[in-house]
Structures are given as C-alpha cells and as structure tokens.
Design a protein that fits this description.
With 254 residues, the chain is mainly β. It contains 4 helices and 12 strands.
Length: 254
C-alpha cells in the first residue's frame, strides 16, 4: 500500500477517478449490444467520472460502459463518453470511433465529501454523493480491454449502408494503482430520454464506489474486425452518439 500521491496542488493530473460499479439484469445489457457482441460473465455496469487533461486542457467526463464479449475477448463496451469539451468530441468520433458527446459534469472532492452530477439536454440523469472512508490496497497491475465502434454512413439521402462499414475498435490499457479509497454514498439515476441509464440499466445490486488514482503503464488503439453492416445499421440510428436505442433525430417532445 503506497502513501497518498503528492504533486503540484490543484494539478489536474492528480485528480482521482470516481469508479462506480453495479450489477443489472443480463437481458438489459443484451438489448444494448450490437450484433456480434455477447453478454459477459457477469452483467456489470461501470460508471467512471473523471477530470483528466486531454491535449493540454482538463476534460471532465463520464464513461458509461457494460461488460461484454467480442470474438472471444471479454471487455468493456463503451456506450458513451459524456464530456464537457466540444473540441474533443468530433475528432474522437471520426478518428477513433470513441463515442464522445457533450454534457455538463460537476465533480469534486472537499475533505472527505465526494460529489458528482452529469447533465445532458437539460436532464440531470446521474448524481452521486458520498464520503471517502478507508484506504484500500492498491492491488496488482491489471489490463483492461475496451470496445469502441467506428463507421461512416453512406453519403445519400435515400440509400442505406455505409461508406466505411462498422468495425470494432480494440482499446487495450494496462494500469497500476497509485492510490485507492473506498467511497460510501448514494448513486441516483434519473430517467432521461437522452441518457436512459435508469430505464435500460437499472441497479440490481449495491453499487461499489471508490476513488482511483491510476498509473498509466500502456495503451494501444487498433482497428479490429468488421461487424455485419446490415444487422448493425439500426444501431447507427442512435440518440446523439451515446449508443442508446432511439429514433433518428433523438426523442420526440410530448
């Protein structure tokens, strides 16, 4: 177990990530996975709230992922990266297939209090309030496999299909842990037509939350295997770029 990380006060590189994990029903995850993906060994949802510098500027974000399996590899299928920096959204989508979209994220720690909220299209769909309690063992180094999707729709008003068919993007990361603290608190998910975590991934277990200061050891992003383009096309008609089921143009107002 290591000492508390030190560095320049207020440095964005020193911010821990707030990791929240919980179980839902396997059928809930299965409905969200595009053709070619399967459910994993457990129906886990991973919510990661962060503040980390990207291209020399702090980026606040929320990553919503579910455990899934593709081509024999179990990993985290990214449903969306809600972030507060427009400059990083379009290049991330076009170059990597990383599903970033705009949102407002409040995330801070004051003494032992930890607070986070995420708002998109005027819906505050996630809130967390808790307190950092005990320091946890850092544990061994570990690897994470993440899946993104890259594709380009056909440039036509009338013809379906893709100019670049859907491919899986394989993201491999290796981490150590500099510091880890348990957080005890309350996760609140509110219904939203734009980020329907509450509706589509309801909580079925006590959420496990902790503050995690990572050590970045390795990371690669590579283009993987194609998906069945015809079967995938309905999944391209999503709300924003958050990979949620929806009609073209997003939810209709009542």
């Amino acid at each position: 177990m290591s000492d508390i990380p030190t560095g320049n006060p207020g440095d964005a590189l020193n911010w821990p990530m707030l990791k929240i994990k919980y179980l839902t029903e396997e059928a809930n995850i299965a409905k969200l996975l595009p053709p070619g993906f399967n459910t994993a060994s457990r129906p886990e949802v991973i919510l990661t709230v962060y503040n980390f510098p990207v291209n020399g500027h702090p980026e606040f974000g929320l990553v919503t992922s579910v455990l899934a399996e593709f081509d024999g590899q179990e990993g985290e299928f990214a449903l969306g990266y809600a972030i507060d920096r427009e400059s990083e959204i379009f290049i991330s989508q076009e170059k990597f297939g990383q599903p970033k979209y705009p949102a407002r994220i409040d995330y801070f720690r004051m003494m032992d209090f930890v607070g986070a909220s995420v708002c998109h299209q005027n819906y505050t769909f996630l809130e967390y309030e808790g307190a950092a309690t005990e320091t946890l063992d850092n544990g061994p180094e570990f690897e994470v496999h993440e899946f993104w999707l890259k594709y380009s729709r056909k440039a036509s008003y009338t013809e379906p299909g893709f100019d670049f068919p859907p491919h899986v993007v394989n993201v491999y990361s290796k981490y150590g842990t500099a510091y880890k603290q348990k957080v005890e608190g309350r996760l609140t998910l509110r219904e939203s037509p734009w980020d329907p975590i509450a509706q589509n991934l309801p909580v079925k277990s006590e959420p496990d939350a902790y503050l995690w200061t990572p050590i970045f050891l390795d990371r690669t992003v590579t283009l993987g295997k194609p998906l069945n383009a015809g079967a995938f096309e309905p999944y391209a008609n999503t709300i924003g770029n958050s990979r949620w089921p929806g009609e073209n143009g997003g939810p209709k107002k009542g």
